[in-house]
Amino acid sequence: MLFSTLVTALGLASSAHAWGQLGHKTVANVALQFLQPGVRDSLNAILAADGQKRLPNPSIVDVATWPDDFSHSPEGKWTKEYHFIDAKDDPPFRCGVDMSRDCHGPGGCVVTAIANYTNQLVHPSRNVNETAQALKFVVHFLGDITQPLHTESLARGGNDIMVKWNGEKKRLHGVWDTNVITKLVGPDDANSLTSWTNAIVNEVKNGMYKDAVPEWLSCSDINDAVNCATQWAIDTNKLICDYVLKTDPEGKELSGSYYRGAAPIIQQQVAKGGVRLASWLNQIFGAAQEGSHSLSGQDGLVLQAPEIEY
């Protein structure tokens, strides 16, 4: 697949979906590779006790996309606002996130949702279903906040910007969610998930991401969740002006040169989500220090990416 030669070859906010299923599962699968001893067992125990589960022993990979499905159900529509923050900036001339301006609505936004559900994990409910739900939300929202168009209000996070992909009309938001990832790593299946996880983990441990990890985790204190999640949103939103909407993509074919610029950005953002999620969960369920940059890498892939529905 193209992603395997990425280094040498490349030298909505109003939508609830980010990264598509493969992207979210990869964020979770990357995080699994950096969990401290015992943390994965704690996560699995919470999910196994969930009365809403469809599998007997789900992992965080299996539940990574559940919040998207839930937000589109009648009982879960109240969670739609939690998946994004609507930055009312002016790309490509000015990008930026202002919590008082952009985190609106009765439910808040992805920033406050991360803080809220993190607190619920730090102080778990006696109701095991509520604790499992909080875990599922945290896993998902730390992926959402790395998708640039989930930090942008313009054209409903790019949903109203129509572009072309291999000659077919597509929404810009969907191109960033799914089309770039599919071209980069292949279809949403076990092989693609395992291979992409391997590639990202290798880059984090020994490759082009290794020196960037301290910066990615420069704010990663679960006790300062609103501030850290805001910083993550600002970091992600900067990409709107730097690349996503640096030039007007309306009506343009994006599967060529635009794709070649977007692909490494998306892989890096997925890597950021996985690394931050591991650090976050290691603090909540393990012995990691608040804001610690240390990650406990596994010798090999913990999960070989089963293609199963939660």
From TrEMBL:
Annotated Gene3D superfamilies: P1 Nuclease
MF-aspect GO terms: endonuclease activity; hydrolase activity, acting on ester bonds; metal ion binding; nucleic acid binding
Signal peptide: 1-18
GO biological process entries: DNA catabolic process
Keywords of this entry: Disulfide bond, Endonuclease, Glycoprotein, Hydrolase, Metal-binding, Nuclease, Signal
Pfam family, one: S1-P1_nuclease
Nuclease is among the record's keywords: yes
Record-linked InterPro entries: PLipase_C/P1_nuclease_dom_sf (IPR008947), S1/P1nuclease (IPR003154)
PANTHER family cross-referenced by the UniProt entry: ENDONUCLEASE 4 (PTHR33146:SF26)
Family: Belongs to the nuclease type I family.
The protein's name: Aspergillus nuclease S(1)
